[in-house]
Write a structure and sequence with these properties.
This protein is mainly alpha-helical. The chain is built from 13 helices and six strands.
Length: 334
């Protein structure tokens, strides 16, 4: 008799939990209210379903973060919400909201890494905007036209853009961001160096391509400036890569924009051949980040004249050509 009563009690308790849970789910699956006015909701890059649910609850767009997490997990949609901007309203039910979030944002995040040239930057936006072949061709032509003479001044950053943004708007935003990041303090300090903004951005672009860490950049900057002052050729591989790819990849959407150099490469007659010609190359070769720009403006003095990277990425400096040649043998096997 006691066992029967115990089983009945368990069934009753389980039933109560089930009914309570069902009521909770029904209530928290409903819309927050009847207001149909849309709000801007942004999903930052890298946000998990848990973080998204918390942000939705904070903005008053869902009743329960837990209900959202349960729903997307059960439906297998936890990783289907893309980063970007959405227009949503409190009048949407939980299922309607999730459906909207999993059908793509109005605006998308686009990351432009440091050290890319204009042609590489274009492709990042084409992919992010999901442009068709014809749309992509139009975008490329417009972007290259808008950024003519602006290599190095398209600031590498993570941007949020509407998918329908024209190339002119994208170019304008990248250039404006450069002007914000390279602030008046940096520009005032550039005036004190004896070099122009264009020259130091050109130097920064070489530093960006030639270095692998923030710690290296001021040292390499100091070496390159010393070579300039003593009328030595800069001997920067990246400038040669820029020149060669500029010829070989012209008109191509997909190409190796930073090719490996061969012995013949060093005979290239381009003014970007910093092995053959002294002084600055004609213009920047890529978009430098702020640490490379600061390295160019605030270089570190040293006794070094040479540098190279071993295969493991470690940098090795040298004071003399003899020491540099020894580093080549020891770390590059040549």
């Amino acid at each position: 008799m006691k066992k029967l009563l115990f089983l009945i009690s368990l069934l009753v308790l389980g039933g109560l939990f089930y009914i309570g849970g069902l009521r909770w789910w029904i209530e928290n699956s409903k819309s927050v209210g009847s207001d149909e006015a849309e709000q801007r909701f942004v999903v930052p890059k890298g946000y998990s379903a848990s973080q998204i649910s918390s942000r939705l609850e904070e903005q008053g767009l869902i009743k329960s973060a837990l209900a959202f997490k349960i729903f997307v997990q059960v439906k297998g949609l936890a990783k289907k919400v893309q980063a970007g901007e959405y227009d949503v309203s409190p009048s949407l039910s939980l299922s309607q909201l999730v459906d909207k979030l999993t059908h793509g944002p109005n605006e998308v995040w686009v990351t432009i890494p440091e050290g890319l040239r204009r042609e590489e930057i274009i492709e990042r936006f084409i992919v992010a905007f999901g442009l068709s072949s014809n749309q992509a061709n139009i975008f490329r032509v417009e972007f290259l036209g808008e950024t003519e003479g602006k290599e190095g001044f398209l600031f590498p950053e993570t941007y949020l853009f509407p998918k329908t943004s024209p190339a002119s708007l994208v170019a304008q935003k990248l250039i404006q961001t450069f002007d914000v990041k390279v602030d008046e303090k940096i520009k005032d300090d550039i005036d004190k160096t004896g070099y122009s903004l264009d020259e130091l951005v050109t130097l920064a672009s070489m530093i960006e391509r030639e270095t692998l860490s923030s710690a290296e950049r001021p040292v390499v900057a100091g070496i390159l400036i010393k070579r300039l002052e003593y009328d030595w050729p800069l001997q920067v591989d990246a400038t040669l890569q820029y020149a060669i790819a500029g010829e070989d990849c012209e008109g191509k959407a997909e190409c190796n924009w930073w090719p490996l150099l061969s012995g013949e490469s060093f005979e290239t007659s381009s003014p970007y051949n910093t092995y053959k010609y002294t002084g600055f190359p004609p213009a920047p070769i890529a978009s430098p980040g702020l640490t490379s720009i600061k390295a160019a403006v605030y270089p570190e003095e040293s006794d070094y004249w040479y540098y190279l990277h071993s295969e493991d990425g470690e940098i090795h400096y040298a004071r003399t050509l003899e020491e540099h040649n020894r580093n080549k043998r020891d770390f590059l096997g040549r």
